[in-house]
Design goal:
Protein name: Twinfilin-2
Distance between the termini: 99 Å
CATH class of the largest domain: Alpha Beta
Strand order of the largest sheet: 1-3-2-4-5
Shape: rod-shaped
Number of helices: 9
Domain ADF-H: 148-284
Helix content: 25-40%
Subcellular location: Cytoplasm, Cytoskeleton; Cytoplasm, Perinuclear region
CATH topology of the largest domain: Severin
CATH superfamily of the largest domain: Severin
CATH architecture of the largest domain: 3-Layer(aba) Sandwich
Family: Belongs to the actin-binding proteins ADF family. Twinfilin subfamily.
Strand content: 25-35%
Structural class: alpha+beta
GO molecular function, one term: actin monomer binding
Number of strands: 12
Length: 320
């Protein structure tokens, strides 16, 4: 059910005259389900200097009211006015001059971002800063391409890669320091295939180099396998983007500077995938033989006879 408030004739006429701009403030009260004129003030100084002096004394903690306050600015219809609805459950600080200015600032500010939007904004800032100082650009006559981000390898990480190249260790785990923009060594614990699932973190990405020792077709092999572990969406968007962007440049540096031939590059989201059978099939994929179609038997050698035309019988099976 709606309550209809009637505007008194006195207030209606007063509002009509107020359009000329002679008044600064008009207070409207509710009396017997009618809107009546409460108070009226004429301008003395600029709108902001008159604001608190005129408005705050009219705020009754026990009675709601409406206030029309004239600004000094104009538009096509004349002076611009503020409409203020005062209720006793509000604080005067909400409608004072500073409260009004805070309201204007909040209205002109960008809309608040969600957590995901804030994260994307941080990624764009970080990515732009990193690309300026770290990204190499390859230029050809037709286009430019960014070859990925290049975070530098720290000394311990380089030493570990050299040891792997010399077959003195068989496992390396690396991580990105996204704040310092570098690649750090996590550890080089001796690792067997059965240990690999335990080496994969559940909540953060990692780079792994594993020396896969095995036999294939009677030959003993030591194959370097690169594993990029990314545990789904349990890590931040920023981490996913940076790890993905740095991967190719890291592999280029490893193969170029440490002469490590990477036999297989894997991307996983869980350590449960890393079994003996899985690694073997990835390093030595099965070759699928193509099934040969049956050849059509050839006809007898020699010259074929002339083609013969055989006439069919009539509708009743008789000769024509």
């Amino acid at each position: 059910m709606f309550l209809v408030l009637v505007v008194t004739e006195e207030l209606r006429e007063f509002l009509a005259r107020a359009r000329s701009g002679a008044g600064r403030l008009i207070q409207v009260l509710i009396r017997d389900e009618q809107l009546v004129l409460g108070a009226y003030r004429e301008p003395r100084q600029s709108w902001d200097k008159d604001y608190d002096h005129f408005l705050l004394p009219l705020l009754d903690p026990n009675e709601p009211c409406y206030i029309l306050y004239r600004m000094d600015t104009k538009n096509a219809q004349g002076y611009e006015w503020l409409f203020i609805s005062w209720s006793p459950d509000q604080s005067p600080e909400d409608v004072c001059l500073q409260g009004y200015l805070r309201h204007v600032t909040s209205c002109s500010a960008p809309a608040p971002l969600t957590a995901a939007e804030q994260e994307l904004q941080r990624i764009k800032i970080t990515e732009g800063r990193v690309k300026q100082v770290k990204t190499e650009i390859t230029v050809d006559p037709k286009h430019q391409t960014l070859q990925g981000l290049a975070f530098p390898l720290q000394a311990e990480a380089k030493r570990a890669l050299q040891q792997l190249a010399e077959r003195r260790i068989n496992y390396i785990q690396l991580k990105l320091d996204t704040e310092k923009e570098r690649i750090d060594l996590v550890h080089t614990s001796p690792t067997e295939i059965r240990d690999l699932p335990c080496r994969i973190p559940l909540d953060t990405p990692r780079y792994h180099f594993f020396l896969y020792k095995h036999s294939h077709e009677g030959d003993y092999l030591e194959s370097v396998v690169f594993i990029y572990s990314m545990p789904g969406y349990s890590c931040s968007i920023k981490e996913r983007m940076l790890y993905s962007s740095c991967k190719s440049r890291l592999l280029e540096e490893v193969e170029r500077d440490f002469y490590l031939e990477v036999a297989k590059k894997l991307e996983i989201d869980s350590g449960e995938e890393l079994t003996e059978e899985y690694l073997y099939d990835e390093v030595h994929p099965k070759q699928h033989a193509h099934k040969q179609a049956f050849a059509k038997p050839r006809g007898p050698a020699g010259k074929r006879g002339n083609k013969r035309i055989i006439k069919g019988g009539g509708e009743n099976g008789g000769n024509s």
